[in-house]
Amino acid sequence: MDTSGYIRRSLEPVLLKATSEFPAVLLTGPRQSGKTTLLKHLFGGSHRYVTMELPDVREAAIADPRGFFSLHPPPIIMDEVQYAPELLPYIKERIDAHRSIRGHFLLTGSQNLLLMERVTESLAGRAATLRLLPLSTRESTGRPSRPLPWEERPVEDEASEVSPFGLWQSLVRGGYPELVAQPDRDLSLWHASYVQTYLERDVRSLRQVGDLTSFQSFLRALAARNGQLLKLSELARDLGVAVNTVKAWLSVLEASYQVLVLRPYYANMNKRLVRSPKVYFTDTGTLSHLVGLRDPSHAAAGPMGGPIFETAVLMEVVKTFVHRGQEPRVYFWRTSAGEEVDIVVEVGQTLVPLEVKLSATPRPSMAAGIVKLRTALGGSVLPGYVVHPGDVRLPVVPEVTALPFVDL
Fold first, then answer.
1. 270 pLDDT exceeds 60?
2. Cystine design at 157: which of 52, 55, 125, 153 (Cβ 3.0–4.6 Å)?
3. What is the enclosing helix (H) or strand (E) of 78?
4. What is the CATH number of the domain that holds 117?
């Protein structure tokens, strides 16, 4: 974090490169993930700023697009462009009239589903699309370019020192920049307001949800199943709604970057593998709020401690890839006999297995799933890691290292 309070983002060099190569850049991600702050920090001195969230601005722009761009000519940052997709063809028109100019239209959006369809239609080949998720631990601790543990790291690279309570305090707080930068903010009030705002804006604009109370019940029920095999029929039955309704609601959460659907890894194996995916909330603070956890000690010791910590590990890996402008190829591995590896990262033609354990005392038995995976798939599996919340880094079995979360 610099003296102005700005937290450096891993995406910065990727964003700068994209603006040097494309006429337009679309930056998507959940609300409050820092999209506008990032763009203003990098381009505030060179680009005008206008938000489509304001009704009068939006109405004027839609009513007279060419007049709007005469008043707000590029280079321009256009915030929340999903509210005015009608402007995209006119952005295309201006780009085509000046094809040699790069980085003149910087667009942000909080919804993936409808926005991406419109951008693909209107700005194909003209816009780079990047995602900004809430802060990773790398970013919040001032190490935005830190490689992942299986990648080459500088000799002087060191993990940050975080106490167990400090770790759980950060997990319950979550990664939204406003909460990280202002630790005195009322956590419960912020998350309650965020969920309510998200319900009112994104859910109603993406898909008609007739009963918001039922949708809120769905959110809490899904949070209670975070990290478990997702059985939509059981979830629908418990909520008293149709399976198709649950599928539609889940797609809304995915489209607005609130959840990540983790799919099982398949290989050419004789063993029978499970087919059901798992669902993880993308922010541990949102997850903690939805399951009613406010106190870090209660979160660590309670039944949701494992799922929250597993979410933190998964999302640290996912955010690291996403903020490099890369698509994360992450899975889990589980056989019908119950053999399982929590996270499998596909790196080229190889796999990196990660097992997540809540105990800070690593033991060889914690690596059992990784050993099974290595036996099943052989040389395609790289040395793995047992990620834990403690401070011990050591081999637990051959080719498997116990790794503190802060060193991930």
1. no
2. 153
3. strand 76-79
4. 3.40.50.300
214 pLDDT band, cuts 50/70/90, is confident
Q: Which of 76, 106, 131 is the last residue of a domain?
A: 131
131-149: average pLDDT: 95
Q: pTM score, two decimals?
A: 0.94
Cβ(102)–Cβ(21) below 8 Å: yes
CA-based torsion, 6, 128, 54, 250: positive or negative: negative
pLDDT > 90 in the chain, percent: 76
> Residues 63-80, buried b or exposed e (16+ Cβ, 10 A)?
eebeebbeeeebebbbbb
Residue 2 lies in a domain: no
Dist CA 331 CA 345 (whole Å): 6
Domain of residue 277 covers 137-407
Q: Give the C-alpha separation, 396 to 367, whole Å.
A: 7
Written as one string, the DSSP assignment of 27-56 is EE-STTSSHHHHHHHHHTTTSEEEETTSHH
Residues 40 and 151 both lie in one domain: no
- My answer on whether 114 and 162 are in the same domain is no
